[in-house]
Amino acid sequence: MEKNENLESGRIDFLLFIWKKRKIISIITLSAAIITTAYTFLMTPLFLSTAIVFPAATSTVSFSGMPKASSMDFGEEEQAEQLVQILSSSRIRDLLVRRYNLMEHYNIGKNDANKNYKLNQAYSEHIHFERTKYGSIQIDVLDRDRFLAAEIANKIVDLIDTVKNQMVKERTLPAFGINKRKLQLLRVSLKEINNKLDSLSKIGVVHTETRANILQAYNEANNAEDKAYFKKQMEINIKHGAEFDGLSMVRNEKLISIAKFEDTYEQAESDANTELPHKFIVERAVVADKKEKPKKAVIILVVTFATFILSIFGLLVQDRVKELRKIA
User: Fold this and answer.
1) Are the C-beta atoms of 73 and 59 separated by less than 8 Å?
2) 134, part of any domain
3) Total tally of structural domains belonging to the chain
4) Angle between helix 208-220 and helix 224-273 axes, rounded to 10 deg
5) Rounded to whole angstroms, how far apart are CA atoms 77 and 261?
């Protein structure tokens, strides 16, 4: 009971203190409200433009016979996170900084010792990427120029394919080059084998199946001239037949290897030279018709209330200090 009475007495004392100090509290609070109001009118208004895209599933033209992701499939969480990382990368930022001269636009001096830090801070304050709960990517651009805000947001949408295709080519072009050189080496090797086989064929070396016919022709020859010819052919085939058979076997293996490798080559060529879209555009940015920031009313109310609370707290501290000095 006594505790409740003390609590009630403390509340009454607190209210009496506020009433006693009402003039100075009112002056401080009103002054803060007036100063904040004036300051908000000096703040540069910022306009917001928003674009929304969905990531596309990773897809490519397949030559292997195995179905891959369709170009019509929407990407999932992994593709969305990858897309956010690409949008947040220096590749996108540097392209925008150069195209729209953002260093000057954000009033950052070229000779400023901290220009890169200030540019990154200004960029992150004005341009933001976020994955929504629906799996899409929201691109927000704030700028004092409402038309520029919309233009930058739409340019970012267009740069998604440009930058991602560049990143893909950094891997696929070298891979295609390797596959191209390997296929060329296989074809050169096959050509050398064919040349050797042609040379042996010109001197009379034939396939294994045909050699039995030479022996039969020799036995059936009716004159010495024919027998001498077929005997010479048999000697040539005995001497070079094994080499001819070995080269024929290697050639067949090369033909099989080239036939199999051509699918790999065509896949690498397709990956290196095909530029696929990597996003679905849900909504392009439009020019804002009213400012997004600053929220003048919110700022004034928050600062005014905070000043009211702090002024009471400051006066309480001041009053307590005076009491302690009297006791001391």
Assistant:
1) yes
2) yes
3) 2
4) 170
5) 35
Task: Assess if residue 18 is contained within a domain.
Answer: no
Please report the pLDDT score of residue 268 as a whole number: 77
Whether 149 is covered by a domain: the verdict is yes
What's the pLDDT score for residue 139?
92
Give this prediction's pTM.
Answer: 0.64
Low-confidence ranges of the chain (pLDDT < 50): 65, 67, 69-71
**Residue keyed to tokens 């392209």:** 95
Q: What is the pLDDT of residue 64?
A: 52
Which residues face 55 on adjacent strands?
279
Tell me if 15 is assigned to some domain. no
**What stretches of the chain show up as alpha helix (H) in DSSP?**
2-20, 22-42, 77-87, 90-100, 102-105, 115-126, 146-202, 208-220, 224-273, 296-327
- Same domain, yes or no: 134 and 187: no
Instruction: Give CA 227 to chain center in angstroms.
Output: 78
Q: Please compute, for residue 108, the number of CA atoms within 13 A of its CA located in the half-sphere on the CB side.
A: 18
Are 136 and 255 part of one and the same domain? no
SS3 317: helix
Contact assessment for residue 303 and residue 31, using Cβ atoms and an 8 Å cutoff? no
Q: What is the pLDDT of residue 68?
A: 52
Nearest CA-CA partner of 276 in 182, 167, 133: 167
pLDDT at 67: 45
- Amino acid (1-letter code) at residue 174: P
Q: Over the Cα atoms of the chain, what is R_g?
A: 42
Is the preceding peptide bond at 294 cis, omega within 30 degrees of 0? yes
Both 188 and 298 in one domain: the answer is no
The angle subtended at Cα 318 by Cα 313 and Cα 320, nearest 5°, is 95
> What integer pLDDT is reported at residue 280 of this predicted model?
81
Q: How far apart are CA 272 and CA 274, in angstroms?
A: 6
Q: How many CA atoms lie within 13 A of 153 on its CB side?
A: 30
